[in-house]
Write a structure and sequence with these properties.
Blueprint lengths: L1 H22 L10 H11 L1 H20 L6 E7 L14 E10 L4 H67 L5 H36 L9 H5 L16 H22 L5 E10 L4 E9 L9 H46 L2 H18 L5 H35 L13
Antiparallel strand pairs: 1-2, 2-3, 3-4
Helix pairs in contact: 2-4, 3-4, 4-5, 4-7, 4-10, 7-8, 8-10, 9-10
């Protein structure tokens, strides 16, 4: 019987080692740190490429906005294909020249101001994409580390359950316990092994998700030491919300809307088209100069409706900016409170509470082997230890997630200001 139990434990140990090798990374590979994951993800993220393309498009739009209107080549022939003396080309008058539109009302500078605002907004959008990517990668990294920690805990609980089954079997053979204790311990062992399988699957999924984010397979371990560290929480953030990305985007929208108002106002001033041509008279073979001026006559569309529309959009953008300021201040306060609460919970769950649960389980195991405690006492201590370990991992994951979301809110906006167009 002893040989059978020993062989069974050896098979279980080998299976556990094989499973560990299939999920755990090679020990020789250096751990993948969060900073390294962020750098890899930034190089392959499609969102980064899209943001870069948007910036390039806005810069090209700035170049286009600075162009002046193209001249027009004018060519026309009069007094042909008629009757009498105008039959054929005998009395033809051919005119050829250039017509040049002249923009008035500051249209070019207004277009450049709109293009500059769009360019700054595109650059801020690129910074927002980078901040969102950092948050997403950090959350994926935290999820992967937490999954590995849960897998380690599940394996430890499985080993403890196997040891409890062995102790229960010894007590039953010695006649110091009823067979029900052995059956109960066997049920706990089966459940613990099933928990290991579930944890392995979740770990594989979490690592694969992180690998998709960084664009390469993860062959090494993750930075568990970073995950377990709970930093001391200092005073609340003193950064003003006006310096963050969210408020920078709102301000850029206001700037763009104001530039659109200026552009709409400039459109109310009609442009002038001047032309200079040379006319050749077929009958006398003489050449004469022709000068012309063309001025639109704004009868139906005076541009006032466009100005009213642009002004309303500017007022809307200004109101949304004030809303964004209120939301940012509230989000800052909530994020700070979440980080502080998560740090307190993680510090307690992974510190004194976990140490007390481990000590209680250790005493219960010793007492159960020596016959001083019953199996129910042992099971209660082991259940408490398992729950405390799970709570500690969840608390650490929640703390790191709260930190990442707080840092996303506090990301400062780069300075993309430009010299005003002249």
């Amino acid at each position: 019987m002893h040989r059978f139990i020993a062989a069974f434990l050896a098979v279980t140990s080998c299976a556990s080692i094989a499973q560990a090798q299939s999920v755990a990374p090679a020990a020789t590979s250096p751990p993948l740190t969060l900073d390294r994951a962020l750098a890899l993800a930034g190089a392959v993220a499609p969102a980064t490429d899209a943001a870069s393309a948007g910036v390039r498009a806005a810069e090209a739009g700035r170049t286009v906005a600075g162009y002046r209107p193209n001249p027009t080549i004018v060519a026309e022939t009069e007094n042909i294909a008629g009757s009498g003396q105008y039959r054929g080309l005998r009395s033809a008058e051919t005119t050829a020249g250039l017509a040049l539109p002249i923009e008035l009302g500051g249209k070019r500078s207004a277009r450049i101001a709109v293009a500059d605002a769009n360019s700054s907004r595109a650059q801020i959008a690129a910074a927002i994409v980078a901040a969102d990517l950092r948050l997403a990668v950090t959350q994926s990294y935290v999820e992967a580390v937490a999954a590995e920690r849960r897998l380690t805990t599940a394996r430890e609980q499985a080993a403890i359950a196997a040891e409890a089954l062995r102790a229960a079997s010894v007590r039953v053979r010695a006649g110091r316990a009823s067979p029900i204790e052995q059956q109960r311990a066997d049920v706990l062992r089966i459940n613990a092994e099933a928990a290991v399988e579930r944890a392995e699957r979740l770990t594989i999924v979490a690592r694969d998700n992180l690998a998709r984010r960084i664009g390469e397979p993860i062959t090494g371990s993750l930075d568990v030491a970073w995950f377990d560290q709970v930093e001391g929480h200092g005073p609340p953030l003193t950064r003003e919300p006006t310096g963050t990305l969210a408020l920078a985007a709102a301000r850029a929208d206001v700037t763009t809307a104001a530039a659109q108002v200026r552009l709409a106002q400039s459109q109310r001033v009609p442009d002038v088209t001047v032309s200079a041509s040379a006319r050749r008279l077929e009958a006398t073979n003489d050449v004469a100069a022709v000068f012309g001026v063309s001025i639109p006559f704004p009868v139906f569309n005076r541009g006032s409706a466009a100005v009213i529309q642009a002004s309303a959009q500017r007022d809307q953008a200004e109101a949304l900016r004030r809303v964004a300021e209120l939301d940012a201040a509230q989000a800052f306060a909530s994020a700070e409170a979440e980080v502080a609460n998560a740090a307190t919970t993680a510090r307690a769950a992974s510190g004194p509470a976990l140490a007390a649960a481990q000590e209680a389980a250790r005493i219960a195991r010793i007492g159960y082997r020596e016959g001083k405690f019953g199996q129910l006492d042992l099971l209660d201590a082991e259940r408490t230890l398992s729950q405390t370990r799970t709570t500690a991992i969840d608390a650490l994951a929640a703390y790191r997630d709260a930190q990442a979301r707080r840092d996303r809110l506090a990301t400062p906006a780069p300075d993309y200001s430009k010299e005003p167009a002249r």
